[in-house]
Amino acid sequence: MKVNRSFILAGFILVKFILQYYLISPDYDLQRDEYLHLDQGNHLAWGYLSVPPVTSWISRIIQLLGNTVFWVKFFPALFGALTIVIIWKAIEALKGNLFALILGATCILFSSLLRLNTLYQPNSLDVLSWTTFYYMLIRYIHSEQPKWLYFGAIIFAIGFLNKYNIAFLVLGLIPAILLTEHRRILTQQNFYGAVLLGLVLVSPNLIWQYQNSFPVLHHMQELAATQLVHVNRWDFFKDQILFFLGALFVIFASLHALLFYPPFIKYRCFFWALAFTLLVFVYFKAKSYYAIGLYPIYISFGAVFLGNLLNTGWKKYVQPVTIAIPLLFFIPLYKIAFPNKSPEQIRNNSQPYKDLGLLRWEDGKDHELPQDFADMLGWKQLADKVDSVCSSLPNLDHTLILCDNYGQAGAINYYMRNRKIRANSFNADYINWLPLQQKITDAILVKEDNDEDKGRKTEIPLFDTVYLAAKRINALAREPEISIYVLRGAKVDINQRIIDEMERKKNWQ
After folding, report:
1. CB 3.0-4.6 Å disulfide test: which of 301, 307, 383, 476 passes with 415?
2. What is the pTM of this model?
3. For the segment 92-107, what is each residue's pLDDT rounded down to a tens digit?
4. Pick from 33, 13, 2: nearest CA to 409
5. Helix (H), strand (E), coil (C) string for 178-227
6. How far is CA 271 from CA 66, 85, 196, 346, in A?
């Protein structure tokens, strides 16, 4: 039987990987954030302005493997596959039968994780970290062996060094434990040993944050002012339903079981953890997808409960129908939730996307494409334009490419064939990577600006020659029109200007 179970699990993993590559149309480039994360692999550090360091380590591995799109997409798919494995192991730990294992794996496979795992961002590992931490808690509650506390500390540290979002897990879990008999854990020496281990593991990042004046706090303030202000709490709850739509009945079954099913009474803290964690998310007006990692572990509880409930007599005939439900709910989502259609196809049939709010961007307005899809257009085209402009210049040794934002800079660095020069920006982490040691006499400006005169007027006094060299136009891209200017013959000390602008930006942030 174990061999058969392993074979079935391997089948789920294989299907997971196939789907992750199949669900992305070749009409799209990488997404804005992916370029930044890939570039972080060229500047390894214990922290960055918006994320902890783990993603940069993975980016370095991707570079060593060839830096191709295949490997960029491989790692989020891998983390999604490992999430299925952890849920499988959790169901086994909860004494679930084969039906429960298949049901749980099916619910995880045909869920919003398929969408999340298409993007190379910290979110895929974040969900895996949440799920694995909860799995460690299940193992500890079941056995009360201290090793699971220490394993949990290690998993928390990995999650924290990947994305600070896992702090919400702790904020929701602490009051849940205090409400149950598990509060006695707070009197145990091993608990504090595990806490100490976790602090030691995350301390390099905390030290980096301290040395850099805690940029994560400034990032959160900016995020709250520019994006979270548009978050509607009702939309937050609506999105929670959509994330695991086909598995809702399993999640609700888990909540019932955690309250009333005798074998699960000792795990009741999970019921309260769900409630408190959602309250914390809502209080801080968090983006809805921040909570995705909360749900997979509840699918394991629900699958085991239903597996025992539907395991006798005529109820066994309900099992195939139950397993089919996540797949049936996935089919309509397949048509709208993934970048598997060309931009033109989406624009010509936009109503289903609008009905589900998928066309609403972070600015609170509806657009022609979902924001993530629009953020996957025009980047290679931009890099080709900049590459062509660079080829027309006689000397790049003293030339600076300066972009408006990290998406432009990262895409140029990823796609551009000319490796003698790198794109930079005063935006995001690029502000710390500017080539101050290089004497700058010429510059290429990449600007999201439709007004040529406005784009030139501030630079004309600083250079002998300023002209518009090219434009990248893509009406469906998040940045529909990008201008590329060439500035030759600096009249002032450009390096000092860069230093002054860096200080101004950092003080503003």
Report:
1. 383
2. 0.91
3. 999 999 999 999 999 9
4. 33
5. HCCHHHHHHHCHHHHHHHHHHHHHHHHHHHHHHHCCCHHHHHHHHHHHHC
6. 45, 23, 27, 40
